# Entry
Amino acid sequence: MAFERLSILGVGLLGGSIGLALKSKSSHYHITGYGHRSETLAKAQEQGAIDQFSTDVTEAVRDADLAILCTPVGTFEDLLRRIGPALNPGTVVTDVGSTKRSICRAAERALPAGVHFVGSHPMAGSEQRGIEAARADLYRDALCITTPTGRTDPTAVRQVESFWQDLGMRITRLTPEDHDRLLADASHLPHALAAALVLLQSDQSLAVAGKGFLDTTRIAAGDAGLWRDIFQDNSDNLKDSIRRLRQHLERLETMLEPAKAKELLHWLNQAARKRHSRDGT
# Structure
């Protein structure tokens, strides 16, 4: 069954882009947006991302085939508790969160029997935020990670994966535990490091920073509240990532002596080859 009545909870960059992408494909989707500010929701409606909106979350999900949580991960558990009683049997719930263990556990506790949760993490976005930054092609050619558990309804998994594929995404599956462990290295640590690199700079060094620095630290301009929630929700894995990064930096520190020039060159070449292999070059 294809989803026709959707509720997008949080109509910012990610939620708004889902609405725009769906509307660019077909007019048969009926999309209700939810948020705290009527002005933002009205703007999303004007841009064509949603058909109607409500600041009452239970009203926003009423009669939805699919509800998508697009708010910061720190709000997910409360939203699930609030929407659960308003959802019809057969409704599917998914999300766009960057952590997965807590949301999967919360969904299993909060949602009633017959309502199916499938964890999703579309790896798309930018340091920009808000409905003004939303665009219909945000998800095209990007990767979406789904995180079914042993209790996840298989039909709902296929439906959600088909939904993301219809937006142009590639799909891979991970357990919630593997997702959070791998994303700590590949996403959460890089964001933390970008923030630390920016804070390290003096006004003088920042003034002479070139394109390499700006490319490396672009993500540090992201939504602080959103990333605070991600870091705290995945703190155990992020702490382990930081520990292993510290080991690499300590090794680098030992290679800065003239006698270690060959070892340093080998270390840098290893990194270059590994980075090139990611792009298949």
